[in-house]
Amino acid sequence: MTLVSDFALTKIQPGAKVSLGGGSNVADLTRALASRTDLDLYSPSAATRDLGTELGLAIKPAEEADPVDLAFDGADSVDYSLRALKSKGGIHLFEKVAAQEAAEYILLLPAGRLRPELDPEIQLCLEVAEPAIKQVRTFAGDLGLKADLRKEKSLLGNSLLDLYAANWDNILELNRQLVAFNGVLSSSLFDKEVTSVITVQDGKAVEIHKGDL
């Protein structure tokens, strides 16, 4: 157990409905729940569901959930407004389904991943319907973004388009325009979904809520 996953474990009450996303801290948390038979578990991540199977846990797909009490997930970059980029896994559409079902959507972060601004080294990822790829790439270029098409497809068989900028100062407006463009199904920017993060500061786990920073 890490400090972060150990703290997260204390938030899970008997009988809770819990969604488990991805990342190393969530994997540690999942292992810690192996002996719990009193929980109703879900996950947007096939890897986490497979881990549950190995541990003897019945973890159902996130889209099968009724409203859940807690959803835990990882993130690639989070800023002080608790906006998050969850880009590398390419399953953000399903992760947002999990977030929308949760009373609390909590990110488990390694030390240093929570920063004043989003990390420009982390891309904004779009899930795009195949017929619209050419038009979306052209539109992203017109917005000043570098666009790389992943070889891998999304879980639904759609294309994943990674977008890069010198900085993400204007990411909210960029994201607004991109998700409104025909053929774009979802983006990896989580603007309002995150309720808190659990991370390590000064050698101890802390929970930081939206508005604390």
Automatic annotation (TrEMBL):
GO terms for molecular function: isomerase activity. Coiled coil: none annotated. Keywords: Isomerase. Pfam families: Rib_5-P_isom_A. Its EC number is 5.3.1.6. Transmembrane segments: none annotated. This is ribose-5-phosphate isomerase. It comes from Lactobacillus nasalidis. The gene is rpiA_2.
